[in-house]
Amino acid sequence: MNDGRDRLRIAVQKSGRLSEASLDLLRRAGLAFRASRDKLFLYGENLPVDVLLVRDDDIPGLLVEGSCELGIVGRNVLDEQRLAGGEAAAPVALLDLGFGGCRLAIAVPDGGTIESIGDLAGLRIATSYPALLADWLRAQRIEAEVVLLAGSVEIAPRLGKAHAICDLVSSGATLAANQLRELTTVLRSEAVLAASPRPRGAAATQLVERLGARIAGALSGAG
Ligand code: ATP
Ligand code: ZN
After folding, report:
1. Are residues 77 and 87 in the same domain?
2. Are residues 172 and 198 in the same domain?
3. Whose C-alpha lies nearest to ligand 1, atom 23?
4. Which atom of ligand 1 is nearest to the CA of 73?
5. How many A from CA of 44 to the centre of ligand 2?
6. Do 106 and 50 share a structural domain?
7. What domain range is 122 assigned to?
8. From the alpha carbon of 190, which atom of ligand 1 is closest?
9. What is the reported pLDDT for 4?
10. Per-residue confidence at 199, pLDDT binned at 50, 70, 90?
11. What's the CA dihedral at 50, 53, 57, 62 to 10 degrees?
């Protein structure tokens, strides 16, 4: 495919919220796999397609550099890296996959003084998604300070590091456990099938299209 490979590569989260559903979808699309000894690869047994098991954050980069032709990743990760990457070619989202649903939301301390998004002006907001948050603040014409935290964002207000947070939420239980209340949604997200923006040969392009169609078929069959 790229760099002289004759097999397609799909990047999938190695261990996390998207792993099981991603592999299950590929199996339902008709792929059969055998694990490599180091557990970094799953070799396709019935098609020239292998699965590379990686951290979800690495998936957009692997697609941009062309090390993988396809990937399954949250729209939140894809959009964050596209916004942070500026003008560089970005992966193309082909299909919404119907799992990994969550929202990137701004939350504030329960019973505090922040009642509307306008109240965020001049405050500090902690997040692991600085580009998505900055983009949303710009669109809302709110000037606030974005504080980058790699993890445990939900405890930032209690530590005095920020007045509010912008983090992924699904049930809301984590927010409630930290006495936080959701103020507004910045992005709705789910897992997507994304493709490399790199030009490929005819054989790879055909195989990507064929796999995309099989995955779409597996999704519509799942209803
Ligand atoms: P990795 O080790 O691969 O970097 P991670 O800790 O970044 O893993 P996970 O927590 O497994 O990632 O989440 C992967 C994706 O699952 C998120 O990027 C998001 O798209 C989706 N997701 C769904 N619900 C939630 C949630 N409640 N919290 C966080 N992510 C969620
Ligand atoms: Zn991650």
Report:
1. yes
2. no
3. 100
4. 20
5. 25
6. no
7. 102-188
8. 20
9. 66
10. confident
11. -30
